[in-house]
Each structure stands twice: as C-alpha cells, then as structure tokens.
C-alpha cells in the first residue's frame, strides 16, 4: 500500500485550434440519460459537492465530484495512501463514461481537496469507516446502486466498511490490497526485497536501520528500483501527470501516522501495522471483485485467495500490472472491472465457473 511519500520525492520528478466554427457534438440518443442532470443539486459546480462530516473533534468538509448519471450503478472511489487524493483515479474518465457508469471522486478527510485538520487522533480506521458511511448517505447511495471501490489503503477501508455496512452495498471492489498487513510485510521482506540487486537492498536497509527515511539517496533508490518495478511500471519521467500530481498533494501527517515513515513496508508505530481481517472475510456476502497484479507490492496469490474466502467473489489478475495497474495494465484492468460491475447489475453469476 506504499502510496507514498511524494512530497519528499518532488526533486525527481479542452482546447482545440481551428479556422472554422465547430458544430457542437450531439450525444447519441442511447447515451443521453447518462448526461441528464435533472433534479441534481450539483449542476453549478460541475458535480462537485462538499459534504460535512461529523467527527469526535468537530465537523469538517470532504470533497466529492460526481461524473455521469446512472440510477442503477454508482461507484464511490476510495483512494490510497492514506493521505493521497482522488487524482490517482483520473484515468477512469477514459473508461467509465463510455460504459455508462456513474462514479464519484472523493478526497478523504485530510486529503488535499478536503479539510485538513491537524489532530492526529482523527487518522483512525474506524473513524474513516464512519466517514464513508456519512458520504454514502449524503450522496444517496444505497443497496440498489452502491458499488464501493477501494485501492491500496482504500481497499483496507473498503473491507472494513463492508464488514460493518455491507447491507448498503450492491458490489465491493478490493484493488491491490491484501487482507493482512503482517502478511503484506512478510511478502515485502521475503519475496520482493530479495528481487532487488544485492547492493541496492543492502544500501536501502542501511538507511532503514538508521531511520533516515528522508535521505534523498534512500528515496532515489526506492523510486528507481522499487516503485518502477512494483508501484507503477514506467520510467519516472514517463509517469502519468495525475500520478505525479497526486503524490505532490500527499498529506504526510496522515500517511506517516497510519502507514509509517518507511517506503519498504509498514514499520514503527504506524496505526495500521497489525491490521488483519483474514478470519472475517467469510462474513462478506456482497458480490466482491478482488484485483491483483503480477508485479504488485501485494501478493497476487493472496488476492486470489481473498476472492475465494468471501461468499461471492471473483478474482481479476493483471499480468502486466503493478500496484497502480489502472495505469500499467489498463486494458485488462478496466475490461475486468467493468465486466464485474455489469454482471452484478444484470444479476449474472460472479464466481468463476459458476
């Protein structure tokens, strides 16, 4: 779930011109309902709505943005980090609208476009679950239309939400997140770390031992040898602009409190360090898609196991993907994700071979 200490990484890295008037493009009759804003209260803002969230420390506002209109399919996107932003999902714009899927960008409390209180007691998993529930209610999402998509840390949040509030869900998507942080750490230590060149691993671990996590050399080693193989499989200077922008907007207070300062696992006194719901997955009844990738920081085999543990699950494997497989294995990622949503909507079987 290493997304990501980018404020320290910044040192690395509809307009058309024409000579004649352009006729407005008319929407196809079949897609017209998707763009219908009748009765919406977010037309002036282009779908953006600030939602007040009640917390033990007062009321704060979180940022959401609706795209499209489909009464039967509404997907709320939970970003990773913690403390990253919705910007990591902007490539969804290239796929969801043409599939007729209504979806909601959402910056969790503490993230860039939402309020950013400084009280660290707010960076608590159970409180975030209650925040998602308040967002659901404000957006009028319900069991007849509500799909919850969570990636990385968002996957933790999605699983925890489903274990308490799955009666409100129509479908659940867990992307690039295993159900156990200790297992994630073990996979990082025993499988991914040994794949690094020995001299690189030795140097990374030397900085880890000294807890010198902000050292530019440490960060450069992590980005060049770890991120480009397991987080997003592209050269740093080719990373999609929304990825760089989202990393730039990271709230490090949220990130370090819950995830810890290391870029090579979850260490120190991070609040998520011992999180594990493997034994509770059988409680999840709602149709569930688990997305894993061959080069991910998360064990894809465990993502496949997760799909079998829930009562009605499907596994989507991205053979060329990593932690951000929505960017580096797009065709497989989006075709499988959209197929799952459509199958749930149409009442088709979810389990492979059923």
TrEMBL record:
Keywords carried by this UniProt record: Hydrolase, Signal
Ranges of residues in domain AB hydrolase-1: 75-329
Gene3D superfamilies, from UniProt? alpha/beta hydrolase
Record carries keyword Aminoacyl-tRNA synthetase:
no
InterPro entries to which the protein is assigned, alphabetical: AB_hydrolase_1, AB_hydrolase_fold, AB_hydrolase_sf, Peptidase_S33, Pro_imino_pep
Q: Where on the tree of life does the source sit, at the highest rank?
A: Bacteria
For this chain, the family text in UniProt reads: Belongs to the peptidase S33 family.
What is the protein named? Proline iminopeptidase-family hydrolase
The organism named in the record is: Kordia aestuariivivens
């Amino acid at each position: 779930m290493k997304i990501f200490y980018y404020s320290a990484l910044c040192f690395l890295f509809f307009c058309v011109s024409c000579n004649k008037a352009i006729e407005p493009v008319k929407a196809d009759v079949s897609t017209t309902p998707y763009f219908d804003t009748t009765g919406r209260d977010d037309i002036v803002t282009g779908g953006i709505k600030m939602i007040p969230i009640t917390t033990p420390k007062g009321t704060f506002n979180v940022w959401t943005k609706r795209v499209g209109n489909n009464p039967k399919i509404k997907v709320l996107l939970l970003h990773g980090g913690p403390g990253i932003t919705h910007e990591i999902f902007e490539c969804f714009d290239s796929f969801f609208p043409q599939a007729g899927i209504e979806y909601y960008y959402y910056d969790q409390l503490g993230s860039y476009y939402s309020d950013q209180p400084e009280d660290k007691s707010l960076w608590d998993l159970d409180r975030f679950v209650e925040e998602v529930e308040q967002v659901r209610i404000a957006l009028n999402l319900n069991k007849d239309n509500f799909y919850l998509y969570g990636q990385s840390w968002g996957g933790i949040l999605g699983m925890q939400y489903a274990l308490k509030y799955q009666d409100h869900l129509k479908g659940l998507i867990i992307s690039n997140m295993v159900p156990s942080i200790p297992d994630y750490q073990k996979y990082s230590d025993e499988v991914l770390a040994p794949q690094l060149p020995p001299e690189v691993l030795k140097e990374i671990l030397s900085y880890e031992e000294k807890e010198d996590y902000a050292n530019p050399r440490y960060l450069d080693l992590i980005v060049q040898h770890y991120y480009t193989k397991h987080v997003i499989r592209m050269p740093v200077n080719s990373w999609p602009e929304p990825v760089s922008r989202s990393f730039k907007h990271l709230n490090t207070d949220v990130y370090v409190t819950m995830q810890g300062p290391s870029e090579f696992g979850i260490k120190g006194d991070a609040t998520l360090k011992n999180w594990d719901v493997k034994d509770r997955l059988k409680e999840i009844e709602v149709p569930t898609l688990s997305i894993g990738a061959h080069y991910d920081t998360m064990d894809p085999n465990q993502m496949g196991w997760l799909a079998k543990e829930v009562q009605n699950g499907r596994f989507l494997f991205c053979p060329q993907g990593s932690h951000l497989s929505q960017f580096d294995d797009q065709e497989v990622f989006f075709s499988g994700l959209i197929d799952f949503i459509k199958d749930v909507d149409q009442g088709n079987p979810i389990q492979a071979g059923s």
